Amino acid sequence: MELKNFFVQDDAGNILSAATCYLYERGTESLVEVLQGANGLGLDNPFVSDQQGLVQFAAPDGLYDLRVIKGNRDYRLRVQCNDAIENAALVRVLEENLKVRTDPRKGLGMVGFPRTKIDVSGRSANAFLSAQRFSLWEFDYAITDRPDPNDPLTWDWYQAFMEALPITKKGVLYVPPYIKYRLSKPVPVPVNSPDWTTIVGEKNLTTFVLDPGVPTAFCFADSVPYDTVQNICIGGFVVDASLTDGTDGAVIFGGRQGGVEAMRLNYDQIHLFDLQAFGMSSDTAGGKFRVGIHLSSIFGSPSDAPTTMTNIYIDRIRLEGGITGLYMGAGVPVSNDAPLWMDEIYITDFWHDTLIEDAGYPAAGIQVGQDGCGGKIRVHNAWSGNGGDVGIELNGFYDAKVTDSVLYRPGTGFWSYNYHRLSDPKKQKVIWENCGVIRPRNNPGWRIGRTKGGHFSLINCWMEVDELCDPRVLDFASGSLEGLEKLTIKGFVVYVKTAPKADYPSLAGSLSLHLNVPEWSLDIDDFTVIYEGEAPRASHECAALIFNSLSATSMVRVKIKGLKVKDKRSGTLLSSDAIRVYGSARLYGVIDEMVVDSTVVATQAKHGIRVAASSVPAPELKVRDSDLSGCT
């Protein structure tokens, strides 16, 4: 600190004693906080000149404004402090530190800028730089595990993360591309933090490699029940899980590790984007459960205090392998009524394939909601391949919509099932729009279960069937459907490429409606079944729309327009129908513009509507403006 000396005078050169002096940062009204007197002791700011008008002060090196006030006189001087002796000593120390190569905090590590508390005012270069994103490489000095000191690929970057996360809160931690970052442990993101934790890399270019036995890249910090995982933003990474030997856990992000799930946690404001994982084992031996992203809240009893899962945004995800792509939900012993509420869930551009043709249970693409219930969820542009259990399953949402999504070889395709009974089931609304299913294996393309009401819609959807799959388009889960308000199907096409397998001799390409509930309505506008190839065998039967096992208490109002059956197969069938009715429900309504265009040979008959003799009472159906020339 340089000592400055001034004499305060008026315009005539007379000494001004006891003048009040202020020392400001140059160009501001901010008083300098650290001053010393000539005796080396602290000096208040403002201060006064002595009886001879002498002003003495020492300040840190820098540029200042000195303001002097005495009576009517008020003027300012520009002042620069620069302690040459002190600076020379600092230069010598700096020169010595720059020569050090063994300490990452010295040598080249000193060529940068010192971060300070973030200042967005941008008054200086330091303030501007401190407001920018942090680089993980700024914290490489914390890495002690360096098998090859000259090869960062061998370093344990978990140690750098642990150093960086407490410092980078409120900022962005950036992980540069073109290097593979080894992790010996999952990186724990904080819980209950009011600040955002933001960790970003470069999409497809920043890669984490999990050491053998490491279940996940990002987990939750130590938590207790009813903590909240919140304000998390992670994106722009690839996770290489090929060394993990199928360790149970969430590969990219989540609370499942080694088969243990998060207990009674809340979630809010989770943003995951531009993430990819590969090398994920799809082996279920030993109870292993390898999942891409896993958010859960496990309860000990249905009477536990509730938790919430809200404002979850998952965007542009690709997962190669693993049993499940995305799981979000709850669990509770004995009952399925877990006290978890979910709302504002958005899943976009999601891709997952188990990469195993016959993946078994519980393989799934997306499952959200198990044992809980919720408000709004949206799934858009999702792909799920070879999900042995289900493609996309949504549980207990009042307002659910899936759009522009395709499932390849799922066990069940799209599944809506309310594990948790809704308090007002008539308000439930589930829509599938522009969605398709390719060759579902064990169950129909669409299935609805455990509801007491609601409106379910399939709009502009399609399904492809071959000889190896379950050929049913939609049915209701047997014994679990207690009520239904309305089922709407608009613009649906079924492609029966080859003959269905023998397990389903009478259901090829059909809507199979098994229902034992009170009055409900079915609205169909433009439903087409296209049969191609060769008929399977002479004993085979086909029907496009089947009403089956309906109880005497059921009253089904039917409004069908544009039911089309186009059957151009070669070979011989036992029978082929557009509509087949079994059971004892009251079936009534109107059928408009039904078309049966069929050249396939049937040894019995080809019907527009076939009613089994056991059906009492007979359906009350009006058929209008229809072309049944393809019937016999």
Characterise the protein shown here:
By secondary structure, the chain is mainly beta. About 5% of the residues lie in helices and about 45% in strands. The chain contains three helices and 42 strands. An eight-stranded parallel barrel has the order 22-24-27-30-33-31-28-25. The chain is elongated and about 125 Å long. The relative contact order is 0.04.
Report the principal-axis shape: elongated
Look at the helices and sheets and give the structural class.
Answer: mainly beta
| Computed Rg | 36 Å
Low-confidence stretches: 118-122, 502-507
Percentage of residues in strands: over 45%
| Mean pLDDT across every amino acid position | 84
Strand order of the largest sheet: 22-24-27-30-33-31-28-25
From the N-terminal CA to the C-terminal CA, the straight-line distance is 108 Å
* DSSP E strands, number: 42
- Measured as a percent range, the helix fraction is under 10%
Total number of helices: 3
* Main sheet summary: 8 strands, parallel, barrel
Describe the structure concisely for a colleague.
By secondary structure, this protein is mostly beta strands.
Which keywords apply here?
42 strands; mainly beta; 632 residues; eight-stranded parallel beta barrel; single chain; 3 helices; eight-stranded parallel sheet; 5% helix
Protein topology:
Blueprint: E1 2-7, E2 20-25, E3 47-48, E4 54-59, E5 62-70, E6 73-81, H1 84-98, H2 125-130, E7 134-135, H3 158-168, E8 172-174, E9 179-183, E10 187-189, E11 197-200, E12 206-210, E13 218-220, E14 228-240, E15 249-254, E16 266-280, E17 290-298, E18 307-321, E19 324-331, E20 340-353, E21 364-370, E22 373-385, E23 390-394, E24 397-403, E25 406-408, E26 412-417, E27 429-433, E28 436-438, E29 446-449, E30 455-459, E31 462-465, E32 474-476, E33 486-496, E34 511-514, E35 520-531, E36 541-548, E37 555-567, E38 572-581, E39 586-592, E40 595-598, E41 601-611, E42 620-624
Parallel strand pairs: 7-8, 8-11, 9-12, 10-13, 11-14, 12-14, 14-16, 15-17, 16-18, 17-19, 18-20, 19-21, 20-22, 21-23, 22-24, 22-25, 23-26, 24-27, 25-28, 26-29, 27-30, 28-31, 29-32, 30-33, 31-33, 33-35, 34-36, 35-37, 36-38, 37-39, 37-40, 38-41, 39-42
Antiparallel strand pairs: 1-4, 2-3, 2-5, 5-6
